[in-house]
Design goal:
Strands 1, 2, 7, 8, 9, 10, 16 and 17 form an eight-stranded mixed β-sheet that branches. Strands 12-13-14-11-15 form a five-stranded antiparallel β-sheet. A two-stranded antiparallel sheet has the order 3-4. The chain has nine helices and 17 strands. It has two domains: 156 residues, FAD/NAD(P)-binding domain, CATH 3.50.50.60; 104 residues, Polyamine Oxidase, Chain A, domain 2, CATH 3.90.660.10. It is α+β, with helices and mostly antiparallel strands. The structure holds flavin-adenine dinucleotide (FAD).
Amino acid sequence: MAQQGISDVAVVGAGLAGVIAARDLAAGGRGVHIVEKSRGAGGRMATRRTQEGLAFDHGAQYVRAHGADFAAEIAAWAARGLAAPWGADGRFVGAPSMNAPVRALAAGIPLTVGTTVAAIEGEPGRWTLSAAEGGRLGPFAAVLVTAPAPQAAALLAPVAPALARAAGAARYAPCLALMLAYAPEVLEHPPGPAQRPDHPAIAWIGEEASKPGRAAGAPWRIVVHATPGWSRAHLEETPDAIARALLAQAAPLLGARSEPLYAVAHRWRFALVEEPVRRPCLWDPETGLGAAGDWCLGGRVEAAFDSARALARAVLEETRR
Ligand SMILES: Cc1cc2nc3c(=O)[nH]c(=O)nc-3n(C[C@H](O)[C@H](O)[C@H](O)COP(=O)(O)OP(=O)(O)OC[C@H]3O[C@@H](n4cnc5c(N)ncnc54)[C@H](O)[C@@H]3O)c2cc1C
C-alpha cells in the first residue's frame, strides 16, 4: 500500500478515533495527515470555553475502561497529567479538560482544522479530499473516515458503497446539552458531582468544579444532558428555544431561585450509539478506504479507541504483506 511520491494516509476527523488511528499509523511508519472540520481536536470529548472565562465539558462526561488496552491508555494519560480519577468507581476525566488527552495526542501529527471534507475523489492509490470550504488535499494512498456513521456513510458512498452500507446500519440517539452557570446563593439544591435523575427530560446533571483540574469556586458550572426522547422531540428547535425549554426542566431540580448567569444549549445530533455496526472497523485493502469510530463497536469512548486501533492494525498489516 505505501507509495512513493505521494502523501500516505489521510484521516478524516480528529476525535479520539481519528487521533488514535493516526498515532498508531505514525508509530508504524506511515505518513499521516488528519483533516478536522471544527477548530481543534477532541470531537465529542469536548470542552466549551466561553468569553466569560467559563469551561464546560458538554459532551462525554467521563471515561471508564472495560478492557486492558484502554485501561493502559488511560493510565498513560494519567501519568502525563492528561486525565485523573473522578470518584472512586473507575471513572476518569480528561485534565484539565475533557478534550485534553485528544489534543495532547494530536500534537505532532499534521492536522488541518476548520476543513470539512465534502468528498473523497480519485482512484485507488491516488485519493484526494475536496473541502466544503474550497480547495483540495492529497493525493493519498489511503483515506480513513472517523466521522460519525451517517457522515462517514455519505462520504464513502460514491467510492466505497459496501463500506457505506455497513456504516449506514449504525443508529444514534441525539443529545441536547445545556451549559449553565449560577451564582452560588441562587441554588436551593446544589448538584452533587453527578446525578442521573429519574426524569422524563433530564438524563444527567454534572458539576464541573467537582472534576480534578477545574477552576474551584463560584459560579456553579453545570452541564445538563436531556434524555434521548426529549432530545428527539426538541432536536430541530433553535438553540435559544432548546436552552429555554431545557432550563425550564432543570431549574426545579436545582432549586434555582433566579435566572442563571449563563445558559447556552448545544445540539449533539449524533451523540450516543444505540445500534453499532458490530465490526471492529471497516477496511477495504483493494481501495485503501476505511472507517472507524465508536459506532463500529458501541457508544463509548473506549469503543472509539478500540475501533481506531483495529483499523490502524489492519492498515499496517496490509503494508507488511
Ligand atoms: C452528550 C454526550 C455524552 C457522552 N457521554 C459519554 C460518557 O460519559 N462516557 C463515554 O465513554 N462516552 C460518552 N459519550 C460518547 C463519546 O463521546 C464518543 O463515543 C466518542 O467521543 C466518539 O469518538 P469518535 O472519535 O468515534 O467520534 P467523534 O468524537 O464524534 O469524532 C469525529 C470527528 O470527526 C469530525 N468530522 C465529522 N465529519 C467531518 C468531515 N466531513 N470532515 C472533517 N471532519 C469531520 C468531527 O468534527 C469530530 O471531531 C458521550 C457523547 C455525547 C455526545
